Amino acid sequence: MEVILLKDVEKVGKKGEIASVADGHARNFLLPRKLAETATPGRVAAVTRTMEEKAARERREAERAEEVRDLLGKTVLTIPAPVGTGERLFGSITNQDVADALYAARKIRVDKRKVLLEDPIKTVGTYMIPVDVHQTVEPAELKVIVVPRGSAE
After folding, report:
1. What DSSP string describes the chain?
2. Backbone angles phi, psi at 147, to 5 degrees
3. CA-to-CA distance for 7 and 17, rounded, in angstroms?
């Protein structure tokens, strides 16, 4: 019997897939528990159309993410910070600070968890920070220059 899965079912398939299962398994397990529905031609066409739309949306998101990655690769952020002796910062520059500076400079919103800063920046200098823009696209390399407050542009 052909069924359309409404939820992920172990050893049968993932949500939205059309699976061929035994009649008894469908009638006694999948259908009563609302894990699947009978695959009629109309429902199969609707599921196929939905899957195609989802794939097209994911392609568009990946293309936009590549454009953002290219833009971030060309971006140089200058972050002024209060400095003490020996070029050490009072406090530190965190991934949230980098995300905020990126929004202020380029109006690109990036979740702070996507800024892959291993440790907070605690000294003045130039840093290359990877920024994850999409799961299917390589992370962008963002150049960040930390300068003493007052000497920034």
Report:
1. -EEEESS-BTTTB-TT-EEE--HHHIIIIITTTTSEEE--HHHHHHHHHHHHHHHHHHHHHHHHHHHHHHHHHH-EEEEEE-B-GGGEEEEEE-HHHHHHHHHHHH-----GGGB--SS-EEESEEEEEEE---TTSPPEEEEEEEEETTS--
2. -120, 155
3. 9
Cβ atoms within 10 Å, residue 123: 14
Give the model confidence (pLDDT) of 115-142 as tens digits.
999 899 999 999 999 999 888 889 999 9
24-39 pLDDT per residue, tens = 999 999 999 999 999 9
Neighbours of 18 (CB within 10 A): 16
pLDDT score recorded for residue 2: 93
Mean pLDDT along residues 97-102 = 93
pTM value is 0.69
- Domains in the chain, start-ordered, CATH in brackets? 2-61 (3.40.5.10), 64-148 (3.10.430.100)
Which value, in Å, is the radius of gyration of the alpha carbons in the chain?
Answer: 25
80, 151 contact by CB (below 8 A)? yes
